[in-house]
Every structure is written in C-alpha cells, then in structure tokens.
Specification:
The structure is a single chain. The chain is an alpha+beta fold. Helix content is 22%, strand content 29%. It has a 9-stranded antiparallel β-sheet with strand order 5-6-7-8-17-14-13-10-11. The chain has an 8-stranded parallel β-sheet with strand order 27-26-25-24-20-19-18-28. A 4-stranded antiparallel β-sheet has the order 1-2-3-4, with no helix packed on it. Strand 22 and strand 23 form a beta hairpin. Helix 7 runs parallel beside helix 8 and helix 11 runs parallel beside helix 12. The longest helix has 25 residues. It is globular.
C-alpha cells in the first residue's frame, strides 16, 4: 500500500477509492466510498499519482503534501465529460461533528440537523449559494476544511448519509469539456480561525487576495467607506412605480438636504448615500461636501426585450436604457435560446421575463454608460446589481461566446474599470471570485435562504410583531448557527452589508441583533427606507448607527485573526482583529460574567484594544 507522508500527516488511497489520512497526533480521518475506480497508483518523489475512472471518463490525479501544510490534489483530463464528476468524496461524518458552510458570511450546523434548510446544491462563485470555495467540518478542536481552487465549474453538494449531512465537491463541464486542471486543497487545523488563516495564505499564494489598503491606492475615495453606514432613501411612491401599484400623494417629500441635516444633527457623519433613481448634480455636490460617498444603482445583467416594450409599465421601459442593443447583447444558452432574467410588471397585471445580458457586452455597456453619468452628476460610487452575486453563466452567442471563467473575468474587469475612474464599486452579495475587484457588497450578511419572502421587491417593507418572518430569529439572527467565516478570510478586503430587502431597520424590534452581528464581524449597517419611515425611525436608526459602526471604523482595514464562542450555547462570542481590537458580544438575554469577573450585560458588546 502506497503512503505519502511528512511530519504533519500521512495519506493513502483506500480500497473504497477514497482517501484516508492520519494526523501527527494519531487522529484518523477517512472519506466515504466512491463510485469512481482508482488504478495505476504510483509514488514518484514527493507525489502520489493515480488514474480515476468516473462513469467511463478517465482522469489523472496528482496528490502532494505542500510544505505549508495540508494536502493538494490536482485533477487533469481532456475531452467531453459526463454531466458531473464527484471526486474526491466527502469525509465520513460522526455525530457531534459540525459542518462549516460558506452560506453568506458563514454558518456552522451540526451534521445531524438535517432539518436545517441548507441547499442540496450550492454553486461556487455565487453569493446566492456558496460565497467561497471553502467548506468543511469541526470535530472537537479539529477543523478540517476543503478549498476549491477554481469554482467556476463546480458546486458544493450536501447529501444525507446514515442520518448525517455529508458535503463534497462536484465538478461540472466547461461547455461540456473538462477544460482545465481542477484542484482542491485540504487543511487540518486546531480551530476555525487557524483553518481560515491557512486558506487565506493559500489564496494569497495564488495571487487572488487584494486588500482594501491596496485598493485605496487605486481609488482614494474608498477611505470614506470605512465604517460608513449604507443608506438607501426612497420616496414614498418608489415601490409603487416599480411594481405597478397606484401612486399616492407623498406623505413626506424626499428632501435630500433635510435628511442630510438630520444625519448631521444625529452624529451620523460617515455615510454611503445610495440612490436608485439618482440625485441631481446640485444635491450630489451638497452631499459630497458633507464628506459622504454618493452612489447610484446600476444593472447590466437584465435587459427588456424590444418586442415586449409595449407590454411593460412605462416606468420600467424608461429604466431599461440598454433595450436599444437587444438582441445583440443577450446571452444565448446551449440550445440557442435567450437567457431569462428578472421579471417585470406588465400593463396586463402579469409578470414578464426580461433577457439575460452576457457579461462580455455588459463590460462595454458599463464603459459607455457610467462615465457620462458621473461627469454630469458627480457621483463617487456605483452599485452594480446581480452580476457578482448571481450565478456565472455560459454564453453561446457567436458574437460573444463565453465560458463561466470568461464571464468572471469580464465581471472583474468591469469592477476594476469603475475603480480606475475613481468610483467606490459595490456589488450585490459578492463572492470570493470577485472580491479582489469590488469594494463593498450588499447582501453578504443576508443569506438569500433566510430573507423575508420576495425581499428583492420589498426594499422598504417593515416587519413587526406577528409579521416578523420566522426565519429571522430561527436562522438569520441566530448566533447558534452564524459564524464569521467570510470575515476570517476576507474582512480586510471588502466591506460587507446586509441586503436592502433585509436591512438593519427592516424589523425595528430586532435591530439590536443586527447591530451586534455587525459589531462581531466588524461591518457597518445598511438602512433602506422611505422618507416617511425616516421621519418615524431616525432616532432609533441613530442609536443603531452609534452601536453598529465603532468596530467597523476601528477595524475596517484589519484582518480578523480569531473567533471563539465563550459559552456552550454560542450566545457569547468573541472576535479579534490584527490591530489588537477585541470584540466580545453577548447575544443572550442574560448578563455574562467573564473569567476575570467583568460583567457583559445582555444584548451588548464590549470593544477593547491591545497589542497586536
């Protein structure tokens, strides 16, 4: 039996066509049996090579033990491949293990809790599913993580085996072909923070990590984002116009300067002021004079088809500025059919599909549309919806054929272009494959699965009492499950906000919990509300702002280097940043007494500074 080993571990292939590992302390780990067969195993120097046969498809595998630790596995093949290939298989789980999942910022779920609504399939490189190519499990202090080098054509598969959830990688085709080397890295660490640090170091060695400090050299305005609350202020009829409802007399005019004066009076001096319809040049200049970032919503993944213009409500027709380029910019799927995108309300009361724009022409549209708008109005920020948070798409259009890798490259070029013309670039949700290029994301703190129903069309809905979605307390704001996995890897690379339909203020009575999660993660809050709601909630929002922003200001450019749960029920948690800042959060309704005798009152946090 061939074994590859170093001082840290030994690894071998099992008769079940999977891997078995023995760590230096004697801990043994084994993967589940695989349907793929293994043959021609050879040890050559510091590598173990072997051939895989998966549903008749041959793959050559190379396994090495890097000096930096863990196991590196590379899979090479050529030609057309099956619909999917599942190798390596999942690690065998035991009761008491906790699965680590890149859902939003991160969730830790006991593997026996099969009722937890984790998607069975999670696409990598999509903030909607898996925000990172990183997942794994904890068994006591031991943390075992799997890192996927390029997740463009891969997904995380979560399956039940013997009453426990098991997770593994599934490879998809690149336009039906294997296409390029696929690689994974296994990390073995004492605790989540150490495992995340190993993964971060690997990503740095691949050259994909770009910090906010580095980005700031390209885009100096980015300095204003650190610790800034993200504010979407809508007029009272905005939702009515968007969703074909009758407009009503405005209860409160959307007075930009009055709200800015309110912010100043309330001590809310660091603001990312975002607008859906845009500001006037005069109001933009006024807001910038206050030191605010001023941004505008934009989208390049959706386009209204020309044949449907007469069917759609006029407001939406006016907003679809790229319809004139239809159908040349539309993504074609492998069947030659137009890709579908976000539905719009029609004059007939029904919802109608838009078409999906390919990411290659989307770059050209961005370069044509944004600079004149910036020159006219003066914005210093731009928010691009969908692309960096949605699913990567292949395109079969003869004018702009694209693999998923191509799509990601063009999305990143689009974001770098915005940064190069001086704009602070924001995206929906965000993901690891784009984090090197954007500055902030909206939705990373708000996993899609746990938002209120139809949150994407309810940007100003407030939930109170019996109307509060059950998912808020059960999952979204439950410290028993949430972990700052994203922050442990990328906190110093981008600012992560809640979603505008899952804002800090969407449930006023639960605002405190979002503030506490912001403090733990070192992220600022996001508020999305109408002018009338602002008048009613501004004092409460100011309280939230002054709770939620101090850590983000003090640690906004720092790596998160440690995270621990201080109680068995996980209601008291602690994060530590590279500048020595330590944040201890008590999510519970009981006071917490620390080992040194200090008391942390219920639903509060303490921020302390110290040496690095």
């Amino acid at each position: 039996m061939l074994i590859l080993e170093n001082t840290q571990l030994s690894v071998r292939l099992t008769p079940e066509n999977s891997l078995s590992v023995r760590l230096a302390d004697g801990t043994e780990l084994e993967q589940c049996a695989s349907a793929c067969s293994v043959s021609n195993t050879v040890r050559s120097g510091d590598a173990l090579t072997f051939d895989l046969n998966c549903s008749g498809f041959p793959i050559h595998a190379t396994l090495t033990l890097p000096e930096t630790g863990g196991i590196h596995l590379r899979l090479d093949a050529e030609g057309p491949m099956p619909a999917e290939v599942a190798w390596p298989p999942a690690w065998k789980m035991k009761r008491g293990d906790t699965g680590i999942y890149p859902l939003g910022c991160g969730f830790a779920v006991p593997v026996e809790e099969l009722a937890f609504p984790l998607p069975e399939r999670m696409a990598f490189c999509s903030g909607m599913d898996a925000s990172m190519g990183l997942f794994g499990f904890q068994r006591g202090k031991l943390c075992v993580l799997t890192g996927v080098e390029k997740g463009f054509d891969a997904e995380l598969r979560n399956e039940e085996k013997e009453g426990l959830r098991h997770s593994h990688v599934v490879w998809k085709g690149e336009k039906g072909q294997w296409g390029y080397s696929r690689a994974v890295r296994f990390f073995f660490a004492q605790g989540l923070a150490e495992g995340a640090a190993q993964y971060r170091a690997w990503r740095e060695s691949l050259g994909t990590v770009v910090t906010l400090k580095e980005k700031m050299r390209r885009t100096p305005e980015l300095a204003k984002l650190i610790g800034a609350a993200d504010l979407w202020l809508w007029d009272d009829n905005n939702m009515n116009r968007l969703y074909a409802r009758p407009e009503e007399p405005e209860k409160t005019p959307r007075d930009v300067r009055k709200v800015a004066a309110d912010l100043e009076k309330l001590g809310m001096d660091r603001i990312l002021w975002n607008s859906f319809e845009g500001e006037t040049p005069e109001d933009c200049a006024f807001l910038k004079s206050k030191g605010f970032l001023v941004g505008k919503y934009d989208i390049y993944r959706d386009v209204l088809p020309k044949p449907d213009v007469d069917k759609i409500i006029p407001y939406r027709v006016k907003r679809s500025v790229n319809t004139k380029y239809w159908p040349e910019i539309v993504r074609l799927d492998e069947k030659g059919e137009y890709g579908k995108a976000w539905k719009l309300h029609g004059l007939d009361g029904e919802l109608h599909w838009q078409n999906s724009v390919c990411d290659i022409p989307a770059l050209k549209l961005t370069m044509e549309n944004v600079p004149p708008d910036v020159a006219k109005v003066g914005y210093n920020s731009r928010f691009i919806d969908v692309q960096a948070g949605g699913y990567l798409q292949e395109c079969y259009h003869p004018l702009h054929p694209a693999t998923r890798s191509d799509s990601m490259r063009y999305i990143n070029t689009q974001l770098r272009f915005l940064a190069d013309i001086g704009l602070v670039a924001g995206v929906e949700v965000g993901c690891e494959a784009a984090v090197g290029c954007y500055h902030f994301s909206e939705g990373m703190m708000s996993p899609v699965q746990f938002r209120a129903e139809d949150a994407g069309r309810r940007m100003t809905t407030l939930y109170r009492g019996a109307d509060i979605p059950e998912n808020f307390s059960r999952y979204m704001l439950n410290p028993r499950y949430r972990i700052p996995l994203w922050q442990l890897v990328y906190h110093d690379c981008a600012v992560s906000y809640w979603y505008w339909g899952d804002s800090s203020n969407c449930c006023p009575e639960l605002m405190i919990f979002r503030d506490l999660f912001d403090a733990l993660c070192g992220e600022p809050p996001l508020y999305s509300l109408t002018a009338t709601q602002w008048e009613k909630l501004k004092e409460q929002i100011a309280e939230s702002y002054h709770r939620a922003t101090p850590v983000a200001r003090a640690a906004g450019l720092e790596r998160m280097i440690a995270f621990d749960c201080l109680t068995g029920d996980r209601t008291v948690q602690r994060s530590v940043f590279a500048n020595g800042l330590t944040v201890t959060v008590n999510f519970s309704d009981r006071d917490f007494t620390a080992e040194d005798g200090t008391v942390l009152p219920a639903r509060t946090f303490r921020m302390t500074t110290g040496e690095k």
